[in-house]
Amino acid sequence: MAVRGCDVALDPGVLAELESIVGREHVRHREGEVAPYARDATPLFSSPPDAVVFPARTAEVAAVLRLATAHRIPVVPRGAGSNLCAGTVPLRGGILLVLTRMDRVLEVSADELLVRAEPGATTAAVAEAAAAKGLLFAPDPGSRTVSTVGGNVATCAGGLRGLKYGVTRNYVLGLEVVLPTGEVIRTGGRLWKDVAGYDLTRLLTGSEGTLGVITEVTLALLPMPATASTGVAYFPSLADAGRAVGAVLGSGVVPATLEFLDRTCIGAVEDYARLGLRTDAGALLLFGDDGEPDAVERNLTRMGELCADEGALEVTVAKEVAQSEALLAARRCSLPALSRLDTLTVLEDVTVPRPRLAEMVDRIEAVATRHDLLIGTFGHAGDGNLHPTAVIDVHDPAAAERTHAAFAEIFAAALELDGTITGEHGVGAAKLPYLRDRLGDDQMALTKRIKAAFDPAGILNPGKVGS
Amino acid sequence: MSAEVSGATDAPGAAGAASRGIFPAELLDRCISCGFCLPACPTYALSKDEKSSPRGRITLMRALETGVLDDDDPTLREESSFCLGCRACEPVCPAGVQYGELLEHWRSSQWQGRRRPPLARVLTNVVVRNWLVRRLGTFRGHARTATVAPQGPHLMLGCFERALFPGVSRAARRLRPELDCPADQGCCGALHAHNGDLELGREMARRLGEQLPGTIVTTAGGCAAHLTGVLGRDRVEEFSEYLVGRSASDGSLSVGELRVDGRRARVALQDSCHLRNGMDVWRQPRELIAAVADHVELPGAARCCGSAGTYSLLRPKDSRRVLAPKLDQIEAAGVDYVVVVNPGCQRQLVGGLRRRRSRVRVLHLTELLAAAQDGGLPRRRLRLPARPRRAQVPADEPAGLAAHLNDRPLPDDPGASGAGRPDAL
After folding, report:
1. Which of A177, A419, A450, B79 has the fewest CB atoms within 10 Å, i.e. is most exposed?
2. Is A276 a member of any domain?
3. Among A294, A311, A335, where does a domain finish?
4. Reported ipTM
């Protein structure tokens, strides 16, 4: 079902111009051709574009944007469509600019510790190109095999290594961006120090396709850690696990991985992946580190001891790489495993200051009980980033209403605990109604002025941040 | 979720959406649109277009189910046919979407009447007739036994396999003589289920299940998966699975060794998509190859070869586009043989490698193992006239056998060299 602010089909003259820019075979406009682009990985949001355009070069992107600005046609940039905030759903129709043809990894420079890539290259492809030269691309979003680096930068994607390594923004050195008015700018570059002017690279990172279209990224790399290992600890409750997280971080260890699953998630993952997880526990904590073998072993042992001190039911440290990988795979498939419990999965993404993690989980459980919902929570304990996930029957409109109400309360609770409404998924269309609660009136007004400075015609991803 | 769009969903059965009943709701509801299937899909790799991905096709199916798009929509028609049906999206799907079954329902709705590809109609019409299937094999000397043991195990002959590759069933029986193999058995119906006639396909599987009571052993991965879907997993064993199971229990497999140029042969496997993705059988054929030769893992062994049942006939150009990178990988791997576990793959790779004049030869797993057990080529092979191109290959080397197999005619290639000659094995 389409939800449109304005429903203007493209006129034939514009279609012909689009075809002359990118070639006839790279424009889709028939109803069936555009239907699969009505949605991304976000449930409950669907609205088809009028045309899907696949550019192959920056110049083509610029020409499309100039045309769109001249005709006031909405343009939504998109990579693989794996985001979870309805960031690439073309709410107002118009042109969906899909960048999957621009998927080359242009350069991996071992001397400079950087990689240059086109936006449509997948995160995994970039990481593999770096790994081939013994280098690590640290950001590690759960959808790395699918997601594109352009999308990662546009959403400032997080992942499982956030605590030790940071998130995508910590690795963006430079961008080539096409402004909605057609100018091509290059921000930053191959420089590790550069304070000339406003930090537009940071501003554009996480701008969710509302300020410009990213056509090339320069990303920082790190030396590949010699080894990595993971351990698992089971606790009677998430509050116990929360104390263990505090103890670990207070001890001076900054682990590469510190992830948790609640009881519901443990059960779902075990049913799905059959890893032999202990399903009677109230919480599972995955802890891991990477680096030199003896340091990794020392840190893993230390973390295991701290977990035991805080009342862990059981602590296991992976003996080999394969076992370690299997444990991390369990965390990666938490969302999909939960989704098997029913037909509609609504995933959220609140973050609170780390010491308040357990408190936040308690609040979520209370909300779930009050609204009679099944909500599993997993996430990044080291970052205070939680993913409460409601699983409901798609055929039950009342459950959808209750979910809506429940998440409104969860966002409010996160803000009360000095947290935020989204840690890493983004605002998109999904969180826009709650953005003012987080930013306040003055920041909202400033956001709109920034948006207008980049995009005077308001064509770029309308109905999202800044609109 | 936001108030302005809550309830707006493309899922059938959701508030306000009508359902046509083309797809079982529980199958169509499963997809969460995470997109994890995209990198696994060969047609998405070719097109980089969402509509040619499993997730995009499920969105199209939902649009068909809810009536947003109608049966004559050109994208629906194109995508229901462009999909290989390889089911590579299933093992990577975290939500457990049964894509293969969805596709069968899709084609059964979409490919009715004039919308059905004519060639698909002809093929399915031929093999639906038991007597015609028998006739297909009459002059090809496939394996056969006079009796039908009540509890089996029975070797399934297949429809096209018995005609195209009769040596496969003979090799299977040489390896496991206890396999009962009556000639009076029909087609399993996989062809129909995959080509727009799901009900008939299921009926044919049930009929075959009656003709061959007890365990059905098949040398065709595609048939195995279809039979499993209808008769149940406990009635069906693919040959490699059967062989590994039996030799583990009675230790009866005398494996031998296959040598080329005085060294152990280097052999790669091409997985059967439905065997691997639908039945999770992929270790066993590798284990069996490694027992008689040096197994070389192809980088894309699990990736579809583009045969995909009738696909190579219905969409020959796309089929070859899918095949091309695989042929590169096979040639780069430096192997003597590439082994298949499904007749469609065998036909596809034989044709593809022959067009490239490759030295790599294609064998069915049963043929490889039988050759190893027999210490190379059966003596009968020596009586065949050697052709000049193969003069350098000693006739008693297994390579000679494979070369011969590769030189047999294909159904779409009547003028091919070797036409009309008896099979060597």
Report:
1. A450
2. yes
3. A335
4. 0.92
